[in-house]
Design a protein that fits this description.
Blueprint: E1 22-24, E2 35-38, H1 39-46, H2 50-57, H3 65-77, E3 92-98, H4 105-119, E4 122-128, H5 136-145, E5 150-154, H6 166-173, E6 178-181, E7 192-195, H7 197-210, E8 216-220, H8 226-239, E9 247-249, H9 254-266, E10 271-274, H10 277-289, E11 299-304, E12 317-320, H11 323-338, E13 347-350, E14 353-355
Parallel strand pairs: 3-4, 3-5, 5-6, 6-7, 7-13, 8-9, 8-10, 10-11, 11-12
Antiparallel strand pairs: 1-2, 12-14
Helix pairs in contact: 1-2, 1-3, 4-11, 7-8, 9-10
Length: 365
């Protein structure tokens, strides 16, 4: 056995040995002495040759970083415990501050950010700002005490126009590199990564208008948040200034969508654009409580398109945030800052995508 890999030899293996071409580990479920998948299984999972798997496991050169990552991912998926020699030392810690984890778009961002950071050898430290828990400032203080090399802020106080943005100037003065996702603020000098919320709302309105809906409403978050303001501006630009009476600012949650829907349905809206998928689910619930069919009586468009959204009832038409591209760009900008290569303090805007599913249909005549 070489570095945990059994090499077939001329003699038959003893009963306590693994079969030729297999890897011995504690097993996919942690059972001591169990044999993990064969090299062939790992090769199939990683879509590489068995020889490539062997080279990765033995730490030999000639394998690209991307291929090595695929092989290691295959080992993890199939339950193989990595040999000690393959465990890389972390290049450093990166803080990731998120507002919550109940909305699945935030775990989706966190997962991609973790994957990208891991590809560069960094270890993420996830901090969640739960209501009543630690504040963003307290979390930042704890991250600095932990010696992080940089911080990614996702939908943090930078997106709140009512918040004091001086905290980010103080953070920069302490020479802590950081990047911000969702919520451009001209008072903060740092790289920003955002989806085009203005375009997103316009796409949703035009989709509903093409289906024959004439009275379209908007359920969106509090007006003090930059994404809410931009979505509102995009909505009014597409629906017309008179549509302002069909805008409802509420919470970015199922309950918020439910509350907004009550007023919008009373106002006769047959199509409702939502500031998040969670709000859209609240709108659908409110419609059904009134005996209305979605999309037969009311068409609903969400925003985000987190992984589980295609499986809602009905499958939700939504505007997809380009999570992979945005997260990769944010990490790339942060790592450049950490390396001492200043990134322009500007906003990098990514185009969303309308994903049409079963929650929208032609308006009834």
């Amino acid at each position: 056995m070489v570095d945990g890999v059994t090499i077939p030899g001329p003699r038959a293996p003893r009963p306590d040995q693994a079969e030729p071409g297999t890897i011995r580990t504690r097993g996919p479920r942690g059972s001591a002495g169990a044999a993990a998948p064969r090299l062939a299984d790992i090769a199939v999972q990683a879509d590489v040759s068995e020889a490539t798997v062997s080279r990765v496991l033995n730490g030999k050169p000639g394998v690209s970083a991307a291929t090595r990552t695929r092989v290691l991912a295959a080992l993890d998926i199939l339950g193989y415990e990595r040999p000690v020699r393959l465990r890389r030392r972390s290049a450093g810690l990166i803080g990731l501050v998120v507002p919550e984890l109940t909305n699945p778009i935030f775990p989706a961002f966190a997962q991609v950010i973790e994957q990208v950071l891991a590809g560069h050898g960094y270890t993420p430290v996830l901090c969640c700002q739960q209501p009543g828990g630690a504040s963003e400032d307290e979390l930042v203080e704890q991250l600095e005490e932990s010696g992080v090399d940089g911080i990614v802020f996702l939908s943090g106080l930078h997106a709140d126009t009512a918040a004091d943005q001086g905290r980010y100037a103080e953070l920069a003065a302490r020479r802590v590199p950081f990047v911000l996702i969702n919520g451009w603020n001209e008072q903060v000098s740092a790289p920003f990564v955002s989806p085009d919320d203005h375009m997103a709302a316009g796409m949703a309105v035009r989709h509903l208008a093409e289906l024959g809906h004439e009275r379209i409403g908007l359920a969106v978050g509090p007006v003090r948040y930059v994404p809410s303001r931009r979505k509102t501006e995009g909505f009014l630009a597409a629906a017309g200034p008179d549509a302002e009476r069909y805008v409802r600012h509420t919470l970015f949650s199922v309950e918020g969508g439910h509350a907004a829907a009550a007023e919008l349905l009373d106002a006769g809206c047959t199509g409702i654009v939502c500031g998040s998928d969670m709000m859209a689910l609240g709108v659908i619930r409110a419609a059904r409580e009134r005996g209305l069919d979605v999309p037969g009586d009311v068409s609903v468009v969400g925003y985000d398109d987190s992984p589980l959204i295609p499986f809602t009832d009905p499958p939700l038409t939504t505007v997809r945030q380009p999570v992979q591209a945005m997260a990769s760009a944010a990490v790339g900008a942060l790592l450049e800052e950490i390396r001492g290569n200043p990134v322009p303090s500007t906003e990098y805007v990514f185009q969303p995508e309308l994903v049409v599913r079963g929650s929208t249909a032609r308006a009834r005549v």
